[in-house]
Structures are given as C-alpha cells and as structure tokens.
Protein 1
Amino acid sequence: MRIFVVAAALCLAHCADTQVVSFDAGTDGMAPSPPPMPPAMQCTPGTEQETCFTCDALGNRTVSTADPRCPTLPCSQFDGYRLVEDGAATACVERTHAALMGACTPQGQCVDMASMAVCTAFDDVERIRSNGPCQTINGCETGNPVLAAVEDQTPCPDGACADGVCVPGAPMGGNPGPGMGGMPEPGGMPGMGGMPGMGGMPDPGGMPDGGGMEPVPDCTRFPATIFCAEGTANGVDYCEFMSDTGNDEISCAELCSRHDSVCLDSWDNDSDNCDHDGNADCDDEMGTQICRCRR
C-alpha cells in the first residue's frame, strides 16, 4: 500500500509544491541517507569482541582473518598426485594440504566448510621423474607412479627410443644390438647367441643362446637364468637379467631388494631370452620376466 504525504504551505493554491515519498520496502529513492556515525570510538581497545572481530588501538572494530574460536577444518580431501611437465622430463608430484586453522570470512564469519578456495596451504613432494622423451610415468594419478619406457622407435632428439633410452643417430627401425661378443649399448639388446646351460650362468667369455651374455663382476650377485645386459641409463648403472621362477611368482622389486638394490624397470618375457615381450611394473609378480636393477 502506498501512503502519500502532502505538504501544503497555505492552501490548495500551493499544491504544486507537493513532495511524494514512497515507503515501500526497497523502493524509496527519495528517503534521506542514514546520518554519519558519530566520531566517538566504536569499541574500547583491548576488549574482547565477538568471533572474527577485534578492536584495534584506535577503537576501530575490524574483521579478523583468523580467530582461534573458529573450527579447525581438515583439507586432506584435496590431497593427491599430479603430473608436472618440466622441459623434456615429467615429474609425479604428491600434494599434501595443511589443515585450515580457525579462518574467518571477509564478512566476519567463521569458515565452516573446507574448499579448494580456502585450503591454499600445501606441500609438493616429487615422487618420481622421467629423464627424457623416451620414458613416461604410469599410475601417478592413483598414487602408484612407476617409470615405463615409451614404444621403441619413437622419435627422440637426433635419434629414436630403444628400451626407454634415446639413442642418437639410431635408425627409425630400431636400435640394433652390438656384434658377437660386444657389450650392448645402454638399454639396447645384446647380440644373438645360443641357450645357456640348464639354469646356470653362461660360460665365461661366451655368448649363450637366447640372447644372453657374460655378466660383469658386480652383476653376478643377481639371480639370473640368462644375463641380458649391463650399462648406464640416464646416469644410473644397471644390471639386466631374465628371472625364471616358474610357479613361484615374484616381482622384480623383490628380486632387486634381496640383493641390496632397487628395481629400475621390468618387462614381461615369454620367449626365454632377453626380448622385452611387454612392459611391466616393478611390482608385478610373474614367473618369467626381465628385471633391471641398479648396479
């Protein structure tokens, strides 16, 4: 309902000076503005105010950014893993968020719900890193990151990938192994040969059948049906061998660990030689596999 106030000075002849004011909520465009606050102090310095407010030394009542009376909120639901590109390499980074301690909103209220907007304190820890274009990281998003080699013959700077290593000048058809009796290039396949003795190490100085070779002295500690290669990949010396445990399935991570080493890579193997028949994870338990351990 609209109420009209008519102001007249003397009589109806002065009705042209009438001013109309609307009192409908939110529509009174002619209502006077509230009077300014008096210059007196709004609060007494040092006195406790309601939650999320303080009284400064000048007596101004201001909103706080934090108040211990507000609840502490967990932000762990935003923890996780993510892949981060770093030039030619990729890193798997674990992000851990700190709890939100008694935060206040700009309007002077306690933050009562955790969100990405308020859970801004976190730590990033790098868990694993690929070292070039011939490696990739699998399982980062699930918290189980492992390095894996990209497909052989994938182009890389000035060459092609072979077993996770960029081989400069290698033809696009692959990275051929060395000749008879020679040492393989890092990540490459040794030359062809014959089968070794039953379950034993290859004869000293000879190239056994099945693609094996004689291990260097510091690789002999690893259990191997066939020793496949030794070399350096991405600055890390390694020993690579085929493990045949039959029905007693075991992971390369366990095999390397038993000999004071760590697993760098693993491949499936069906042909009882040094062929990488399929990519695998270090934690995969298999009866026949190729294991690469740190030397």
Protein 2
Amino acid sequence: MDKTDIEKIEKIIKDRVYSNNYLLAKHSKAYKSFLELEKHSFITDNLDRKFKELIALGISIVVNCESCIEWHIYQALEFGSTFNELIEAIEVAIEMGGGPAAASTRFAIKVIEYYQNKMINEIKLEDEIANCTGVIKESFKAVADEFNLTIENAPSHPSNITNDRLKELMDKGAQLFGLHYRNKLIGCICIEKANEENTFYIEKLAVLPDYRHKGFGVLLLDFAFRFIRDLGGGKVSIGIINKHSKLKNWYIKYGFNERLIKSYGHLPFEVCFMEKELV
C-alpha cells in the first residue's frame, strides 16, 4: 500500500478526533444534537449494528464522503463485518450510484487494505507463539480426523504442532504472522526463504473453523504474496496432502499449480507440492 494513501487515511482519522473534541469543547449544541441523532440511528432494535454500518458505508460511497467511508468501514469491522461483506456493500453502492460511486470505491478499497494490514502482525513473543500453536492445532484438527492422522503416524502434521516445533521452525528462519479480528487471534501463516533462488515457502496457513469462508484465508495469502514480493521473491511454494482435493482446488483458484507429488516413508499420505509465480 502506498505511503501517501496511509498518510491520507491516518490524517482523516486524526482530523476527525480533533474536530470532535474541538466542537465538544466549544459546547456546540448543533454538534451534540447530531451525536444524539447518530446514537438513535444506530440503535439495534431490529437490524444488527454491522448491517446499519454497511448501509451507511454504501450511502457514504454514493455521496462520496471519504471521511464517512473510513469511519463506517472501521465501525463495520468493529461490529463484526467481514471483508467479504464490505465488498458486497460496495457493490450495491456501485449499482445505486453508477460511475461516480465506482470512482468513490477507489478510496474505500484503500481503507479496507489499510485495516487489513493492521490486522496482521509478526509473532515473536512466547505467549503469542503459544496462541498460534493453539490456532494451528485447532484449524487442522478436521483434516487430521478426515485422514486419520495421529501423533503416532503423522507427528509432523500441523494438527500435532507444539510450541517447541513452531519455535524450531522460526529459529531456522521462518517468520510467523498472526491475523487478529476483533482483538482475537483467528489465523496465522509462516513464511520461509527456500534454498532455491527467489522462492519462498508458506506453511501453517491456518484459520479457525468459525471464521472460514469469510475471506480471511485469502487475506493471509495476499499478505504473504506482498511480503514475499517486497523481499524480492518471485515464486511461492506449498506442500499439502495430495488427496485433500478441496484444499488443492482452493489453492488452484488463487493461482497455484501442481509441481510434484511425492511419498515419504514417515507420512501416511502423499504430499502434493504446488507453486505460484508472483507477477
């Protein structure tokens, strides 16, 4: 994301806080009345707050109010909206507002990217690593159950990850990143430089079951692609269970291609290695 975009968004946030405090300090009756109107408009009698925020986002795009767009994206996320839901609200705004609304979405997309970037942070502290271990184990449990994987027949599978193994991976150069949503760690990903020139591995891509099919896995992938490009990487490699067709098709959808299928004596499944060229 361009530095000037970040500066613009953060100035909008700073100016909003300043203006709010200024008008309250001046005891503006008109502004206090507006805040009362806002409070009553967003009371959740029948519609959940996030839906009201999504409605407000659509209107903000149609009227091209950048400060409103930033605020209602932030509020929608705070009250449980996913990024997929934000995009759908934007699409409705485009239908209602036509070309001018489509132009307004350019800023909305920048704001979404801004908050996406703030949700993903590198994990280094002991308690954070432990939390990631828990997320990885829970995220891969269903796969382990499906393929009858146990700590005896597949000790290296992510469903059997331990803090020590995760730290060992990090000691070898892998970087661990956590995805937080509404102040909760819901996903993570490891990125590691491969021996092959310009190639990086992604491992332990995990999203908790309750947060799947909401765009968070793609968010982690997109982050990894940007991070790897910034390091000069041109290729991403992953290894998955070959018979896990659903996961394989998900990666294919996002540009990965099968490169090699390999058997290992210590694993009860074949491993499919997949690659994606970064452009």
Protein 3
Amino acid sequence: MKYRKSRTNYPNGILLVADSGKKHFDRYMVLYEPNEYGVYPYLAMSENPTHPQGFGQHGELEQRYSVWGTNDKVIDFEALPTKCQELVNQDLKSYKQYK
C-alpha cells in the first residue's frame, strides 16, 4: 500500500521528518511507514543519537503522527544532521519491507 509522504524527496519507507527545535533534547522525529500490523514505527533522536551522551530511541504509534497544533515543523530528510541520517538509513536497511 502506498502512503502519503510529507515530502516527495524522502527515502522510501519514511512518511515524516519533524524538528521541534532546540526546546527538546530529542528534537528530531522520523516516522516510518506502518508495518504489517498497522503500527507506525518512529525514531526520536538528538543531533548525535549514537554518541554516549546523545539520544536515539525507537517507538511505535497506533495512528499516524501529526505535527499540526504543535511547535514541530516538517523538514526535508537532508536537513537532518548527518549522524541522524546515518541512523535512519541503518533502520531502513534492517526493515525487511523497505529492502
């Protein structure tokens, strides 16, 4: 099933990339297409999520995340810091439905 992406230039498997600005340590959030159970996996992270003092945590949502009504803004994938892009690309390689 094809899902509507927030940006047309996102890699396959990504629906949304959001930035909450500097007000949160886990300022970046990437929402993936739902898995076979209809659950939306996501990744919340800091600017350097793999650093010992960084933050990178996966979670799941039962419905699609929306940034409307919050201070988050939708951004392009290329606007993510390099370390965040690397972590997301590792996720995409490990999710069998995106291979």
